[in-house]
């Protein structure tokens, strides 16, 4: 009797769990874009990976101190009572993503949610977010702000040719170098390499300086996405290949092996510091070392300039404006880059999407428009400079900053974006692992073969090129 | 003293010195970095300043997060200690079939639930129950994970309290509740105190549950806030972290000192299989 | 279980405290309700997720499919899982079974006769390392082992060694010994109080060495304590997430114990089904540890 009871209980609980699992995690509601359009009392929540006092503080303060009061006032004048909340907490991207994913599965997520552009595909394929025209209606396409957003930037918020969200801005990858160390090593202050060979030659010259790491090219799994974004993808683009092309992911091709071979030359040839790559806080450390004149050449995004070395950055460099130089990332050899380019770069950025489950789709869109107006964008920057999504704002705010103007003018036209597909995180992890293998001492050919095998396992043989 | 005794004495002193150094040296950072003008991930004689403290106190959520932590942990600790004591006492004194096996199974399951893999069930369940964004509910979830180990330790502890005390109290007409309150509890106090500190420490350090279950940064506990102390790009903010770490450590240390002074802090013949 | 009707009688007979059935239920149920709701239910649900291909995002997050034992088969074939399992065993054996156990016992044994002041200082320091929050402790140890400014490098006069990169597992074992010795020390000091002083006296009078005394006189008395202690600290260590804060599993998976592996799979990779299956495997490892412990305990009686 006892046994039967146990069994019944077990069956019942399994059934309950199955029901709960399928019920709560898979609901997808068909909804009317015009619902609650005339509501007089509206509550909206903005979810972001930022908080005042922590990560992305500027963004959090802007939302709390400008967007919320201003939008509330604007709506009040129209006779609508809006209450906006900011659900923001700045943590690791992976943790934030997990939280947003759980939110999308239930009903407590924000109405406007900030996500990394690279997650768009995963959420779109899962149906957790939907095209703006579905959620809000066709009037989305007639927003005048779209004209101000360059197509490449707009693509950050698009998936399969449909707009899902509005980007917050973008960035670009360059090669930073320390002019003081360059002078000591007899290298020019206006250095602009035109091939990988030029880079390694400069590194060899820098190697003579004591206590200096000649070249920091992010590698390994500890650096996570920084490895992929700052180093592997720009290098790969310099071989003429893209990580995702013609419906296939880049496998262990000759181009991939060439990238890994550069890693091998750098890390097994004493041009980089292999240990730094493997420390849990290696990237922070590389910032600190660069600001202390201990790294000659560093592959990084413009964040290094505006957020790290600046006076209020994590590793301020007092003589940043005179000591730091920057150059475009060259293709392997002139003309060998994607589309025959001589120079390449990679860009990314966050986007804001509207939660399809919002109770107030029209008002959420209105708020999103408001947050992306030229005025709002300018206020968001305050006295800082950053490449925003809007051309009109960039034209104004970037003039005083030579580095960011350089990115806007020279880098954005040649840059590429990562493919925002559900499988991308797995591919990125495999790329990081391949570089980790080389740093740990394996040959480029071995690492490339292991990468090919990992890719086949991760995304399936049909979706991998080469091998 | 014979040479042999001298040698022993020296070996003993050397061992204690090494142990003291081993346990003390890692903590030095907590004494120097909060007061250093340029705190780094390393130890050095500080370039004394209190600026870090000022910056930390000006942080909009730093101090309130400590208050949130206290609320959360008091709930989790009180629930764990009280419920575990009651359950452990009963399980020790009343023979229930399959008791030991049940305790082991629960102890093992607690390892699954405290892992990251259980985050979806817990999150969805709490959402369905309408219990998200509540300090109290989050405290209860934490307590649920701590209870098996707490009962396990306390039961062994109560097992070692001689039953003759209770029997004589019964002879003098004390009710079972009185026996528990006036006979068992005083004897078991150091063990309960240990569990109390242990539960508090566990709850105090829990990051994932409050992070997922609380919606508002202003109601997040210190364990979560400590992970948000980053700059725009996500690099650690070393101006605030050392000071905040120190502030964050003080309540646990204070609780330990208080409890150990007042109730003793040892297993006192407890944990015995 | 066969004696359902007399259970009440035997129950009463053993119920020396006179708790009674009604009160027993009242005392036990609050704990059981909480455990049932917040522990057993999510745990069973996690096990269920372990047989699906459920993911955090993407298509499988909306319509997860049952894949049966697929995740388990994949794990057993996954070199990284094997690596994590091995590292977990090393971690448990090195830091808990050997490190915390021996250091904890040594401290308890040697502090018995120590001056109260010394005893208080040592005990407080050891306990402090146990109660400090893990995030804080992680910063302390990163500062200790740092390559450039690390305290350890400065102390032993060899700066430039990146301990966490070059010797990740050894560092973690030492770290966790530091972190958890307090529990063993507390437990053994109370256990030692139960060893009859007369027997220790006898051992001394026949000229037994310290080691002989421990082996022949003390150990038989505290055998049960040793086993319980080893079980608890093994389980805690096997499930400890602390290594993540120090090394994040690196370099190149060299310190990726199972809890770190599970986190990597569940959060950054979003493979919840797979992570849940690995959690179940971790549970099985724990089960084996407990079974060995129970077996040893039974052998005693």
Automatic annotation (TrEMBL), chain A:
Protein's name according to its UniProt entry: ABC transporter substrate-binding protein
Coiled-coil positions: none
Keyword Chaperone belongs to the record: no
PROSITE patterns xref list: PROKAR_LIPOPROTEIN
Keywords for this protein: Signal
InterPro entries: Bact_solute-bd_prot1 (IPR050490), SBP (IPR006059)
Signal sequence, renumbered to the chain: 1-18
Recorded superkingdom: Bacteria
UniProtKB/TrEMBL annotation, chain B:
Organism: Actinophytocola xinjiangensis
Record GO biological process: transmembrane transport
Keyword Transmembrane helix: yes
UniProt-listed PROSITE patterns: ABC_TM1
Record key words, sorted: Cell membrane, Membrane, Transmembrane, Transmembrane helix, Transport
Protein name from the UniProt record: ABC transporter permease
InterPro entries: BP-dep_ABC_trans_perm, MetI-like, MetI-like_sf
UniProt domain ABC transmembrane type-1: residue ranges: 66-259
Family in the record: Belongs to the binding-protein-dependent transport system permease family.
GO cellular component: plasma membrane
UniProt keyword annotation of Repeat present: no
TrEMBL record, chain C:
Main location: membrane
Cellular localisation: Cell membrane
Membrane topology according to the record: Multi-pass membrane protein
GO CC annotations, alphabetized: plasma membrane
Domain ABC transmembrane type-1: start-end pairs: 86-293
Keyword Transport on entry: yes
The entry's keywords: Cell membrane, Membrane, Transmembrane, Transmembrane helix, Transport
One Pfam family in the UniProt entry: BPD_transp_1
Ranges annotated as spanning the membrane: 21-48, 84-110, 122-142, 272-296
One BP annotation, GO: transmembrane transport
Record-linked SUPFAM superfamilies: MetI-like (SSF161098)
Assigned protein family: Belongs to the binding-protein-dependent transport system permease family.
Protein name: ABC transporter permease
Organism: Actinophytocola xinjiangensis
């Amino acid at each position: 009797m006892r046994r039967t009871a146990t069994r019944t209980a077990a069956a019942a609980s399994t059934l309950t769990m199955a029901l709960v699992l399928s019920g709560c995690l898979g609901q997808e509601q068909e909804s009317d874009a015009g619902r609650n359009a005339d509501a007089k009392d509206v509550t909206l929540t903005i979810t972001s990976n930022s908080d005042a006092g922590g990560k992305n503080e500027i963004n959090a303060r802007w939302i709390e101190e400008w967007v919320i009061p201003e939008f509330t006032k604007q709506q009040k004048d129209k006779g609508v009572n809006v209450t906006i909340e900011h659900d923001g907490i700045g943590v690791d991207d992976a943790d934030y993503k997990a939280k947003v994913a759980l939110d999308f599965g239930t009903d407590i997520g924000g109405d406007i949610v900030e996500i990394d552009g690279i997650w768009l595909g995963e959420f779109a394929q899962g149906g957790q977010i939907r095209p703006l025209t579905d959620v809000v209606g066709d009037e989305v396409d007639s927003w005048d702000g779209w004209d101000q957003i360059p197509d490449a930037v707009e693509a950050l918020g698009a998936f399969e040719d449909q707009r899902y969200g509005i980007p917050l801005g973008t960035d670009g990858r360059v090669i930073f170098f320390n002019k003081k160390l360059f002078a000591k090593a007899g290298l020019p202050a206006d250095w602009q390499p035109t091939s990988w060979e030029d880079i390694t030659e400069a590194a060899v010259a820098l190697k003579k300086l004591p206590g200096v790491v000649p070249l920091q090219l992010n590698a390994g799994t500890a650096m996570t996405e920084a490895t992929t974004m700052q180093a592997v993808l720009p290098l790969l683009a310099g071989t003429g290949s893209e990580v995702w092309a013609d419906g296939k992911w880049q496998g262990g091709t000759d181009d991939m092996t060439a990238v890994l071979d550069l890693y091998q030359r750098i890390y097994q040839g004493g041009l980089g510091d292999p240990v730094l790559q493997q420390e849990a806080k290696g990237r922070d450390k590389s910032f600190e070392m660069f600001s202390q004149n201990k790294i000659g050449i560093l592959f990084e995004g413009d964040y290094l300039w505006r957020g790290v070395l600046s006076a209020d950055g994590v590793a301020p460099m007092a003589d940043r404006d005179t000591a730091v130089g920057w150059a475009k990332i060259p293709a392997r050899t002139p003309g060998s880059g994607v589309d025959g380019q001589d120079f390449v770069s990679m860009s990314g950025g966050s986007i804001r999407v509207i939660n399809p489950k919002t109770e107030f789709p029209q008002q959420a869109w209105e708020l999103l428009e408001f947050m992306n107006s030229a005025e709002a964008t300018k206020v968001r920057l305050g006295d800082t400079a950053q490449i925003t999504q809007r051309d009109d704002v960039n034209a104004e705010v970037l003039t005083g900053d030579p580095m960011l103007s350089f990115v806007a003018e020279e880098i954005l036209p040649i840059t590429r974006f990562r493919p925002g597909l559900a499988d991308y995180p797995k591919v990125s992890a495999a790329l990081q692992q391949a570089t980790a293998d080389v740093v740990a001492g394996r040959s480029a050919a071995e690492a490339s073969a292991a990468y090919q095998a990992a890719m086949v396992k991760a995304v399936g043989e049909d979706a991998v090129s080469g091998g | 003293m014979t040479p042999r005794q001298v040698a022993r004495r020296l070996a003993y002193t050397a061992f204690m010195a090494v142990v003291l150094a081993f346990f003390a040296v890692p903590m030095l950072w907590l004494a120097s970095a909060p007061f250093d003008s340029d705190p780094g991930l390393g130890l050095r004689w500080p370039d004394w300043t209190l600026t870090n403290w000022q910056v930390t106190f000006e942080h909009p959520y730093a101090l309130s997060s400590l208050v949130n932590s206290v609320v959360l942990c008091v709930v989790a600790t009180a629930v764990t200690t009280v419920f575990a004591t009651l359950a452990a006492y009963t399980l020790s004194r009343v023979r229930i079939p399959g008791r030991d096996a049940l305790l082991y199974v629960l102890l093992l399951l607690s390892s699954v639930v405290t892992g990251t893999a259980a985050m979806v069930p817990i999150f969805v369940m709490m959402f369905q129950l309408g219990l998200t964004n509540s300090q109290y509910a989050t405290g209860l979830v934490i307590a649920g994970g701590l209870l098996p180990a707490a009962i396990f330790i306390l039961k062994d502890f109560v097992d070692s309290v001689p039953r003759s005390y209770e029997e004589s109290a019964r002879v003098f007409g004390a009710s079972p509740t009185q026996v528990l309150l006036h006979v068992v509890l005083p004897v078991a106090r150091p063990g309960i105190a240990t569990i109390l500190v242990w539960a508090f420490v566990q709850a105090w350090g829990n990051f994932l549950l409050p992070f997922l279950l609380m919606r508002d940064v202003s109601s997040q506990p210190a364990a979560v806030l400590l992970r948000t102390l980053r700059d725009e790009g996500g690099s650690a903010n070393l101006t605030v972290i050392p000071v905040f770490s120190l502030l964050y450590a003080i309540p646990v240390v204070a609780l330990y000192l208080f409890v150990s002074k007042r109730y003793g802090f040892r297993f006192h013949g407890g944990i015995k299989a | 279980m066969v004696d359902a009707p007399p259970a009440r009688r035997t129950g009463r007979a053993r119920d020396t405290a006179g708790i009674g059935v009604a009160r027993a239920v009242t005392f036990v149920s609050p704990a059981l309700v909480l455990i049932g709701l917040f522990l057993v239910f999510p745990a069973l649900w996690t096990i269920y997720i372990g047989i699906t291909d459920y993911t955090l995002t993407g298509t499988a997050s909306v319509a997860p499919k049952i894949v049966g034992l697929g995740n388990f088969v994949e794990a057993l074939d996954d070199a990284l899982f094997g690596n994590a399992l091995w590292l977990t065993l090393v971690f448990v054996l090195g830091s808990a079974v050997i490190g915390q156990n021996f250091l904890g016992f040594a401290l308890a044994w040697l502090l018995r006769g120590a001056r109260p002041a010394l005893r208080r200082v040592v005990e407080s320091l050891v306990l402090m390392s146990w109660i400090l929050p893990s995030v804080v402790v992680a910063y302390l140890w990163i500062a200790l082992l740092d390559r450039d400014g690390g305290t350890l490098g400065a102390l032993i006069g060899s700066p430039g060694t990146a301990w966490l990169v070059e010797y990740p597992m050894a560092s973690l074992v030492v770290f966790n010994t530091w972190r958890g010795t307090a529990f063993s020390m507390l437990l053994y000091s109370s256990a030692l109080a139960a060893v009859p002083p007369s027997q220790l006296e006898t051992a001394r009078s026949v000229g037994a060495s310290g080691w002989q005394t421990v082996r022949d006189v003390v150990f038989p008395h505290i055998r049960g304590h040793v086993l319980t202690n080893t079980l608890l600290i093994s389980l805690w260590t096997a499930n400890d997430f602390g290594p993540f804060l120090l090394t994040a599993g690196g370099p190149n998976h060299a310190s990726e114990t199972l809890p770190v592996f599970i986190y990597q799979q569940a959060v950054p990779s979003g493979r919840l089904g797979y992570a849940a299956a690995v959690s179940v495997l971790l549970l099985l490892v724990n089960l084996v540890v407990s079974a060995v412990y129970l077996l040893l305990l039974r052998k005693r009686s």
